[in-house]
Amino acid sequence: MELRKVFLVSLVLVLLVLTGCSEDESGTAKSLLGPDETESAIVGGNGWIHEVVANYNYVYLYLDADNTYIYANLDSPEATTPYITREGTYTIDGTTLILGACTGCDGDGEYTIEMKENGNEMTLLLVDDGCTNRKGELPGDWQIIED
User: Fold this and answer.
1) Each residue's pLDDT tens digit, 129-138
2) Which domains does the chain have, with CATH numbers?
3) In this structure, how many other beta carbons lie within 10 angstroms of the beta carbon of residue 36?
4) What is the rounded CA–CA span in Å between residue 84 and residue 137?
5) With contact defined as beta carbons under 8 Å apart, do 116 and 19 qualify?
6) How far is Cα 12 from Cα 29, in angstroms, rounded to an integer?
7) How far is CA 40 from CA 33, 112, 115, 143, in A?
């Protein structure tokens, strides 16, 4: 029985390393990239895409270096015209992303960023957000938009 436990723990640790995650002292998954690397990995570029509802609702998120963001809903990942666009300001402190008020959202939203080591994928985890739209659409796995 003890050998089986050792094997299972080893397997879980290998899977965590392969997926780009580790655990802190509390057992919470965290990004393998440091806070400075996290910010530089997600700001600028072509933006990020997230599938909210399979084959129906996608969200585009672009974080500009001037601390403004665009958050737009698309019918497909290839769509060039969003059906809703929201804009606001943001701050990043380590792996904490604070999105300021935008159209339809009066207050701030706080999310934890977990970057994958490859820099092409991230997960946004909801910490606190009074905006029904953002907290229903932003948490989850995101892919960087390639050229």
Assistant:
1) 999 989 999 9
2) 33-144 (2.40.128.640)
3) 10
4) 13
5) yes
6) 12
7) 10, 15, 11, 15
- Taking the C-alpha atoms of residue 145 and residue 134, their distance in angstroms, rounded to an integer, is 20
Query: Cβ contacts of residue 136 below 8 Å, gap of 6+?
Result: 52
Structure tokens at 26: 């509390």
**CA nearest neighbour of 118 among 36, 14, 42, 26:** 42
Alpha-carbon span 122 to 125, nearest angstrom: 10
What is the share, in percent, of the chain residues with pLDDT greater than 90? 41
Write out the chain's pLDDT in tens, 147 residues.
443 333 322 322 222 233 333 444 444 444 444 445 566 667 867 788 888 876 678 999 999 999 999 989 988 888 888 888 999 999 999 999 999 999 889 999 999 999 888 888 999 999 999 999 899 999 999 999 876
Report the predicted TM-score, pTM, of the whole model to 2 decimal places.
0.71
